[in-house]
Amino acid sequence: MSHYHEDHGWIGAVPGEPIVVDRSRRVAGITFTLWTTAHDGAAGCRMGLSRSMRFRLDGVTVLHTGDLGDVDDAWLKAAGRVDLLLLPVGGVYTLPPERALALMDAVAPRWCIPMHYRSDAVRLDMATRDEFVARLGTRPVTSGGHTFHPGLPPGVVLLDPASESP
Predict the structure, then answer these.
(1) Local structure of 151: helix, strand or coil
(2) 3-class secondary structure per residue, 61-113
(3) What does the alpha-carbon distance between residue 13 and residue 156 come to, in Å, rounded to a whole number?
(4) Is 149 part of a structural domain of the chain?
(5) Does residue 3 belong to any structural domain of this protein?
(6) What phi and psi values does residue 5 have, to the nearest 5 degrees?
(7) 22-78: per-residue pLDDT in tens?
(8) Does the pLDDT of residue 165 top 50, yes or no?
(9) CATH number at residue 63
(10) 0.85 exceeded by pTM
(11) Among 64, 87, 45, which Cα is nearest to 1's?
(12) Total domains, the chain
């Protein structure tokens, strides 16, 4: 869990007794490495702190940035080599689309899934996913439907939010 804001830390909808990964630890044979980040561009002074999370699953190194508002050399070093980058692109609460794109280029993942953007289901004052995609230029974009799998071609993978599915 990147942080405990109500849009991220509500586990009440999860049945049973879920295991919360909110610190570096090993769970079910998977090693999760978390590190603290600024939720905003003011060193966390406006919106607090968040966490980025890195783990490896089925041979794929995944990096979930959390609500990332700023990046420095230490963050990039902690990120390391990444296969799948889960990247907020909506701005306001996270990196704006142009900075998200620069981060994607710096990390150079095999795949990148944009997240945390305005949509029909999320009507917050953020940029849309299309605003991020419009900045991609000639970078490859694939529609992944509702699931990611390592057989998808490299590039940006657009997943269909479950709340917007037919």
Answers:
(1) coil
(2) EEEECCCCCCCCHHHHHHHCCCCEEEEECCCCCCCCHHHHHHHHHHHCCCEEE
(3) 29
(4) yes
(5) no
(6) -70, 150
(7) 889 999 999 999 998 876 676 666 766 788 999 999 999 999 998 888 888 998 999
(8) no
(9) 3.60.15.10
(10) yes
(11) 64
(12) 1
| Cα–Cα distance for residue pair 64/25, rounded to 1 Å | 15
- Which is more confident, 36 or 85? 85
Angle at 154 between CA 29 and CA 60, to 5 degrees: 5
Whether 18 is in a domain gets the answer no
Q: Which two tokens stand for residue 10?
A: 């509500």
Answer yes or no: are the C-beta atoms of 9 and 21 closer than 8 Å.
no
The whole-angstrom separation of Cα 3 and Cα 157 is 25
In one-letter notation, the amino acid at residue 129 is: R
Q: Which helix (H) or strand (E) holds 50?
A: strand 49-57
Q: What is the mean pLDDT of residues 127-144?
A: 92
Residue 8, both tokens: 């991220």
Q: How far apart are CA 8 and CA 101, in angstroms?
A: 23
Which residue is it, tokens 């902690």?
Answer: 78
Longest dimension (CA), the chain: 45
In a domain, 9, yes or no: no
Q: What residues make up the domain containing 118?
A: 25-164
